[in-house]
């Protein structure tokens, strides 16, 4: 089987065998078993939007094609990700987000007994709690957009893009597909799962973990018992109370919102350092506006899905301002997980067919902004912003919103603002962020308006977006082990990943360390 790459394909073309034949100057009848290997929208020229595609196919004269088209045609290599060799140790994984889920899954598929604990609920019960919260403002601090089966990524866009190059990426994609994701994640340039699909996918992965391991929901890690700098036992809490359990290896895949756990681990003297991150707002536009800005006259072509964008600028004060986790055809999520604090995030379903588009728009912050050298100072910085957002929203878990143009001019938005969220309240968002961040965010918005004309017009800000990444980083050595032996901090919450794909890969690397001793 061969692979041909970098073919420009018109939006209306469906006969891919003909496309391959014309590209390679062979008869269409020679091209068999065509499959899409890559598909990306090329919209650099708005008058000629098209797809850039790659295909796998079979052909009678494959050796000759490899010689005559060596730059564009290659032999398809079969992909393997080998199973590991189990041992007789007791391994516990804390947290069922992408890092913990893939660590536990790879251990279980290798025949290793593993215990996966999650302080939140299974995904079906979790969704009920989230729906209740969005309708009524009744928050369950253990079961929400941050906590529960699948982690924070379950109620997001489910993006599978990453800048890292790692052979494990294909295994992550294959695993998602084998457990219910749509096939297009295997070839799209910017694959995404969608919350509606992710809900079933994480359930299916969990069922496979349970074939060799154990999954415990509504079970929280509350203490560690360490002897001679080696983990010996953990203290867990569930609905029946607290109990101790012996462990040989403890994987901390706790996510960036497990703040009580951060504080407990700090007290237990795990080595933690401050880390730069970013804060800001969600910005929401009509999806039609984004489609027109990206696709021009092709904005409503049926072959094109909801358009996205990615913007980054540097202000005159040398701050980075950038968009993050852009959700085409999506919803802003009220993602609170602590009482009397508010935070927003974004999500999309697979079809991305809502009329709104949203993205985080963030300003870089560094430890110099935290006002303290305490290792958890960045977390306390986040909490202050979330407490202010709660206050501005009316102290009933409504999200504070403002028109972008009014935010720029520091004046009140008086008209009712329609958003993808039901529970919102007009507010003066200049009161939300420290003034230095307001200054840079405003300059960043204006610079972005130069890149997408109209970006600051007919747009809404919703605050606060404060959990773009972890505010801390755990120490770990070259084998991913913390300063306490037998404890392995992984994923986004440990400060070593940023998104579903990189977190999942970090979890796979950890599973390899646990059973092979290397990664």
Automatic annotation (TrEMBL):
Chain ranges of the FAD/NAD(P)-binding domain: 90-260
Database matches in Pfam families: FAD-depend_C, Pyr_redox_2
Domain FAD-dependent protein C-terminal: from-to ranges: 276-468
GO MF annotation: an example: oxidoreductase activity
PANTHER family per record: FAD/NAD(P)-BINDING OXIDOREDUCTASE, FAD_NAD(P)-BINDING OXIDOREDUCTASE FAMILY PROTEIN
Protein name as it appears in the record: FAD-dependent oxidoreductase
